[in-house]
Amino acid sequence: MPDFSGLSPAPFAAASQERAEQILADRAAELAADIMFSTELVSFRQDDEAVIAELRDTATGDRQTITARYLVGADGHKGTIRDMAAIPVHGRRSSRPERTMFLQFEADLEVALRGEAFGLFYLQNPALPARAATVVTTDHPGRYVLAARFEPEDAPDAERLMDVVRTACGVPDLSVKILEAAWSSSGEHVTRVADAFQAGRVLLAGDSAHLMPPTGGQGGNAAVMDGYHLAWKLAAVLSGTAGAGLLASHDGPAPSSRPYDGSAWPWTST
Length: 270
Fold this sequence. Notes:
The structure is a single chain. With 270 residues, the chain is of the alpha+beta class. The chain has two domains: 17-92 and 190-251, FAD/NAD(P)-binding domain (3-Layer(bba) Sandwich), CATH 3.50.50.60; 99-183, D-Amino Acid Oxidase, Chain A, domain 2, CATH 3.30.9. Helices cover 20% and strands 28% of the residues. It has helices at residues 17-30, 81-84, 110-113, 158-169, 218-238; strands spanning 39-46, 51-57, 63-68, 71-73, 89-93, 99-106, 120-124, 132-137, 143-150, 177-183, 190-194, 198-199, 202-204, 210-211. The strands form four sheets. It has a five-stranded antiparallel sheet, covered by helices on one side. A three-stranded antiparallel sheet has the order 1-2-3, with no helix packed on it. Mean pLDDT is 86; it is low at 254-270. InterPro entries: FAD-bd, FAD/NAD-bd_sf, RIFMO-like. Residues 8-249 form the FAD-binding domain. Its cofactor is FAD. This is FAD-binding domain-containing protein. Residues 250-270 are annotated as: Disordered.
């Protein structure tokens, strides 16, 4: 691993989404945030002073209106806020559709870790689906996640999934316990970026702003950084420490006037 001590006093660590989300939710509640599950954003409108949003409780159907100074669209790649804000996107799709299986399993792989707490293995093997797979440790000792691509029509059963794990790990008789198997939510690997990250009082973050293939948790890590950088700017503006112009930096440099043709970024720097 590279030496990051010059950049941060915190050492490298891995945190699962299920644990990280609970930690973040608990801390948000401590800071008096209202967390509403099973709630849908039906519509919103904005003016020079605020955003007025209509919410619906998906369990009861009850609706309520909330007024806020800003709206952050962090509703994922299937969210609606970006489209409601009339922000277009550009990007690329994979050459042919495939589905990615994320398989959580338990096995004794301590010999492969060689005493390390974290391991990320990119594997190539003709016997694997699509000839490749990724195995990564979790923050639960003895628990791992395997990611592999399958054909859209392929529906492997539990026995075949265990065979895939054994093949990936190189241990034909490995004792494997399958905990959970989940497909990626799209049959296509997509790289997509919003043309703008801000439209008035609406700001985008995470997959709503920039979508990438699900390999390696890059999207999740980028979303965390989005939240960090956007949060301190919003805090400064809302407290009156900075003017609203500070939020313009969330959108990055202005694109050039020429149309984007997909061959390169629409802006350049020197």
